[in-house]
């Protein structure tokens, strides 16, 4: 489907571990960034663990406050994350529920079913999948496989952007370009292979922005940029991102995607 090259998925580059081991082995260098993303994404929903922690941190445990939006309170989110990492746990309480505690790693494991180390070349990369009662979602593995095959050039282009932690549309730019694209390709694989089972959708905000980028540039363009590391297509993608960001500032009533033309 994507004309991929490189190593296939084998026991050498894919491992399946239980929840406890997955949490214990989550990369330490990624913990704070992942925690910020989880609170940013889910901390406004008081029915979730992230929401209960966020509301509890601000002292609201009895629904006496209007709905909170962590996306407009990133300073508070950063303070919460730093405090939780320092203490070694997050605490939460809501209504008449007893007080709960959860470690940062266990908290991440509630939200993340798989992780791929893309720091090196494809030959050196690996996937770690979390098992639930000795099972794992095929869709999650497909999503992680799309990370495994991302080109070095594309990965570096995303990481080199100084604005990659800024908001693009309604999502974080680096998440759009890495998680959003992986999600897009994973859904295509699942749709083409019904035997793989149901699609467990993830990263809806990031996926939504990728849909717009695909509409502007075309499917062939984004595949060449992401998987092949085509310099011209990566340049077009990044230029499109820049034009969109500029347009949201200069034309706030119509923040539509724009694309580069010859």
Describe what you observe in this structure.
This protein has 262 residues and is mainly alpha-helical. It has 2 domains: 27-110, no CATH class; 112-250, no CATH class. Helix content is 51%, strand content 9%. The chain is built from 11 helices and 7 strands. The protein has helices at 19-24, 31-42, 49-57, 74-87, 104-111, 138-148, 152-160, 173-192, 204-217, 219-228, 231-250; strands at residues 14-17, 90-92, 100-102, 114-117, 126-130, 167-168, 171-172. A 3-stranded mixed sheet has the order 1-5-4. A two-stranded antiparallel ribbon has the order 2-3. Strands 6-7 form a two-stranded antiparallel sheet. Helix 2 (31-42) packs across helix 4, helix 8 (173-192) crosses helix 9 (204-217) and helix 10 packs across helix 11 (231-250).
